[in-house]
Amino acid sequence: MKTCLVVDDSRVIRKVARRVLEDIGFEIAEAADGVEALAWCRAAMPDAVLLDWNMPVMNGIEFLRHLRQEPGGDAPVVVFCTVENSIERIRQALDCGANEYIMKPFDGDIITAKFAEAGLL
Amino acid sequence: MIPEDMELLAALARQRAGLRIESDKTYLVESRLGPLARREGFESIEAMIAALRAHREDRLIWAVVEALTLNETAFFRDRETFAHLRDTLLPALSRQTRDRPIRIWSAACSTGQEVYSLAMTAADARGVEPGARFEFFGSDLSDRCLEKAQSGLYTQFEVQRGLPIRLLVKHFENADEMWAISPRIRQAVRWRRINLMADLSPLGKFDAILLRNVLPGLDPGVHARVIESLAARLEDDGVLLMGEGESLTEVTGAVLPVADHPGLFTRDPNFRAAA
To answer: Looking at this predicted complex, what is its ipTM?
Structure first.
């Protein structure tokens, strides 16, 4: 079973994302910020990361920069999931190594389509 | 809605545009006609249908028929089809067709996502001969769909259905709350209102025609006529692209399936003489 780390400071968003991703066959871990997410990745690198941008302690883009420098950190497929919807922000995320990008609000169909687009399904 | 009203709507939709309206799909018909009734100033759908019966006004009949069309679409619907277009079909067409533009027609384009996906695919296809010229055509029965298609403006929800993020960044810009497709892609497409039940011969010939996932919305009695009419618009080595699960074996012998490529058809050489 593939694993996905859901990184978002909103418990509600994590819960919704977990339900959708479990339905399409992922085993889920959760983190509320970038530091917590890095700790998860250092312990066990997931197959995918669903990543919020704006979070306390360490935001999504900082987390992604750190992740891609970790041993094995180039492997996870990273899908941003954020309210940041300007083209400049999306370019910045791709430049930092994001694979796909979801603009909130999202629904199950969008997550499924984006994960398929990223080669995860 | 009373059964007599459903029967009238089904008959009008079939006669005018070959559409199939199933008598048990009252909720679907009501959801499509409700907004039209409001725009036309009627108190209810029933009042609009009563006016239809009383006056048989051509403009209102067409507005109703257009509202009954299926508009389901998405960018890059059926990824395999677009991968085949990008890697095989478009490069092959660009080699075969050096002395004229390559003409590709999305025959029921709805709000434009399919034909814009084609234009983006051609722009990014690596194997296309340098100097190849593509002409993309999008047609639909619905003026409202065509207006939206021509605007090139899509909601955040629409650009997240099927469009890879790298293509969004490459071919779109933010436009207030919407996303605007680039002028380069938008200007590559020409638009026209076309009823597939009409004479299509003035349109000329095409190297590829797409009619994906459209037949289920058409009355079975018109399937052969529509496919044969499109087959007659294909160049000798042109292709017809249907939905991946769509078979035409039972419909007509005018086209032949291409082995190992579900949904892809070529014109039967024997049909050529009749066209």
So the answer is: 0.93
